[in-house]
Design brief:
The chain is α+β, with helices and mostly antiparallel strands and 173 residues long. The protein contains five helices and six strands, in the order H-E-E-H-E-H-E-H-E-E-H. A hairpin with a 2-residue loop joins strand 5 and strand 6. The termini are far apart.
């Protein structure tokens, strides 16, 4: 939904969103919208520090260009020409001074400063959502572990009660 929102709201040609794995060394593709949404296996998992997206995650700094075909950091200029792409923005998703992901967007027209400001606001919300979802997952796992512990305790007490009652019945009898 976030990738589609960026494509539709800010008139982007193509948007991808990666989240940083729990091991913090790999970015995993979570969403893709716009043109070229076909699965590209080379982009599904990106090592932090590798390629432009990986370097954005490593540095924690955005990369913006309105001349993608002449940007020395962008490797696939033939694809950019074919799709008539002009601009690129790679934006790190940062929460609590940690990069939790990266958003990359391509456009067929130069980015205006207003688009960059809106993009920044939206990506900050995406970063917060990622952190919230991870916290919800941790809470869910903790709840499941607590419930499993409670079931184990109940089973143990039932078994011990039976084991104690059986001999006691003989003694009392």
């Amino acid at each position: 939904e976030c990738a589609s929102l960026l494509v539709n709201t800010l008139d982007m040609a193509f948007v991808r969103i990666w989240t940083r794995s729990e091991a913090y060394s790999v970015l995993e593709l979570q969403a893709s919208a716009g043109l070229a949404t076909d699965s590209d296996e080379t982009q599904e998992r990106i090592i932090v520090g590798s390629g432009e997206i990986g370097r954005i995650a490593q540095r924690g700094q955005m990369h913006v260009t309105n001349e993608i075909r002449h940007d020395p950091l962008f490797a696939d200029t033939a694809w950019a020409r074919q799709e008539e792409l002009v601009s690129f923005i790679g934006y790190p998703l940062i929460s609590n001074d940690q990069v939790v992901g990266v958003v990359a967007a391509f456009s067929r027209q130069p980015f205006a400063s207003t688009v960059l400001a809106e993009f920044s606001e939206i990506t900050n919300l995406i970063a917060q959502a990622i952190v919230r979802r991870r916290a919800e997952e941790v809470l869910r796992q903790a709840k499941e572990a607590a419930e499993a512990g409670s079931r184990a305790k109940s089973q143990f007490l039932a078994n011990m009660s039976h084991e104690l009652r059986t001999p006691m019945n003989g003694v009392l009898g």
